[in-house]
Amino acid sequence: MKTTISILISSLFLLFLSNCTVNNNEKKSDGNTGNLLVGWSTQNITPDRTVLVAGQFPARLSEGVLDSLTVTAMVLESKGETSSERAIFVSCDIIGIKSELLTAVQNQLKDLLPEIKPEEIILNATHTHTAPLIGSETDSKSQYGIVLEAMSPTECLKYVSEKIALAVVNAWNGRKPGGISYGLGHAVVGHNRLSVNLAGKSQMYGNTNKPDFSHMEGFEDHTVNLLYTWDDKSNLTGVVINVPCPSQVTESLHQISADYWHETRLEVRERLGKDIYILPQCGSAGDQSPHIRIGEKAELRMQKMMFPDETEIGDRTVAHRKQIAVRIADAVMDVYPYVKDSIEWSPVVKNEMKVLDLSRRLISMSDVENSIKEAKVWGEKYQQMLSEIEKNPEITKKDRWYYEITSTYTQARRGQSVKERYELEKVQPELPVQINVVRIGDIVIANNPFELYLDYGERIKARSSATQTFIVQLSNGGYGYLPTSRSIAGGAYGAVPASTQVGPEGGQELVDSTLQMIDEVMK
């Protein structure tokens, strides 16, 4: 009798375990076979010829390659019974996304992937100051006032746009079932770059070690927004890393470089795997930079301890880039253990695009007059230097002989642009700009085409109805800085008329419209 009862109990126990195993397997199968498809790809866009390096007033001819430039594409597609929602993100190691580049990519993909809509493609720049000049110019004359032997901006445009299109095609063709998870980390990368004196005037990179230093002009944001992607077996495939800071530690180099994102990619892959895709995004950071403004001695000491083999230590060095990379990688790893257990296999994906008509910044006649005076002074200096070169061609045999004359020409051209904008706003008082807001589950990624001052991004994040909000500047266009009223009053670079097309009124319009779009996609 006891034996019969024991056998019965054992049988029931085995049946219970069997049912548990089946149920667990069913749950795992259901969880890992959702509606989401994920595709990744990357392309090397490092030029193999001398190029004009974008990002400074003087021209720079590239003098070799410090590290590679890349474009990285990520496709997210939510498959429905009758239709699909998708978003295609492409991060580019360049200074900005000109309209010519966006149009060139869209035109190529019309033929290569006709099923994709142009508005589904979102390009963003990391804002490295050591990448090729890309544009519609056939040589350097219109940009710098003289002809320099280098790959032209139009040639760079063709080269880079083809690589971006190829990355999108490969990512699209490589779509596989997968999932996403997200989290929020922290890393000190960006600093407000505008110092204010006791009289209330601000200056970009002004000296903070002087008696009349008062404070830094604005806020700093050390959050790191993170989006992780996974394959159907819960293996990590890639990470979107959103940092509110441009990639310009070693911004004055004549060498091609992705700046701190190069070291960051190396550091993250060292910890998570060499095949992990990394898509960098620059958050709202028009008044931010990675340059150390206060406490440089302490930072220098830490760099010496962290990287004893580095020959150069301090701000604007590779050691500083490595220090930033460690901080970002630490943020990625701090969040990683938690997001592994919160993968979403069927998140809602919505990609909404609108063209907003933002109020242009009104330029006064006094602004025009002052700019014309400055442009005249710079223009006369340029003509004098040009005359000296014509009289003495030996000048052009010196190393970097073109540096001063091209800087002078750029300053003259910059001043003249204020008058052109003054005339334009009479007939076109609003500037049309493309804005994308993408929902992925309970997060949103809000894109804009400006070097957006941090305050505007903070206003959006503070009022957003999403659980987590990624702001991406320099996306699908390039329209200069968008400064705050406070910064315009301070009068620093980035807030002067020559730097801006849209001012605080248009900035608030951007905030309100972006929030409205967020509410719509989160319904």
Q: What can you tell me about this protein's structure?
A:
The protein has 523 residues and is an alpha+beta fold. The protein contains 12 helices and 21 strands. It has helices at residues 2-31, 99-112, 141-144, 153-173, 260-272, 296-306, 318-339, 365-391, 403-427, 454-463, 485-490, 504-521; strands spanning 36-44, 53-54, 70-79, 84-92, 121-125, 131-132, 176-186, 191-192, 194-197, 202-204, 213-216, 223-231, 236-243, 277-282, 288-289, 349-359, 430-440, 443-447, 451-452, 468-472, 481-482. Helix 5 links the parallel strand 13 (236-243) and strand 14. The chain starts with a helix and ends with a helix.
Catalogue the unreliable spans: 1-31
What is the rounded Rg?
26 Å
Question: What is the helix fraction of residues, given as a range?
Answer: 25-40%
Shape: globular
Strand tally: 21
In whole angstroms, the N-to-C terminal distance is: 64 Å
Structural class comes to alpha+beta
Tell me the β content. 15-25%
Number of helices: 12
In spatial order, strands of the major sheet run 5-4-3-1-7-12-13-14
Overall mean pLDDT: 93
Biggest pleated sheet:
8 strands, mixed
Q: Nutshell version of this structure?
A:
The chain is α+β, with helices and mostly antiparallel strands.
What is the element layout, followed by pairings?
Layout: H1 2-31, E1 36-44, E2 53-54, E3 70-79, E4 84-92, H2 99-112, E5 121-125, E6 131-132, H3 141-144, H4 153-173, E7 176-186, E8 191-192, E9 194-197, E10 202-204, E11 213-216, E12 223-231, E13 236-243, H5 260-272, E14 277-282, E15 288-289, H6 296-306, H7 318-339, E16 349-359, H8 365-391, H9 403-427, E17 430-440, E18 443-447, E19 451-452, H10 454-463, E20 468-472, E21 481-482, H11 485-490, H12 504-521
Parallel strand pairs: 4-5, 13-14, 18-20, 19-21
Antiparallel strand pairs: 1-3, 1-7, 2-6, 3-4, 7-12, 8-15, 9-10, 9-11, 12-13, 16-17, 17-18
Helix pairs in contact: 2-4, 5-7, 8-9, 10-12
